[in-house]
Amino acid sequence: MSKPSVGRIVHYHSYGTPGGEFKPLPRAAIITQVVSDDGTVGLCAVNPTGLFFHERCPYSETPRPGHWNWPPRVE
Fold first, then answer.
1. Is 38 left (phi over 0), alpha (psi -120 to 50) or beta?
2. Phi, psi values for residue 50, rounded to 5°
3. pLDDT over 80 at 28, yes or no
4. Minimal CB count within 10 Å: which of 5, 39, 49, 56?
């Protein structure tokens, strides 16, 4: 895993809604603080309706609701 740092753009994966009206989706997010060496960060996710701040967001190598990961490379 690349080392996270303040200001990097990542993907935050939303939870969606319990009833399934809204599916979990990746959202652009900015790392606002590095919390620990295990990849836990604070971030600001950018949603169509506003900003969401997550103070202790864990890292996941694969997309997983409530976690962040590096965006895939697009060639």
1. alpha
2. 150, -170
3. yes
4. 49
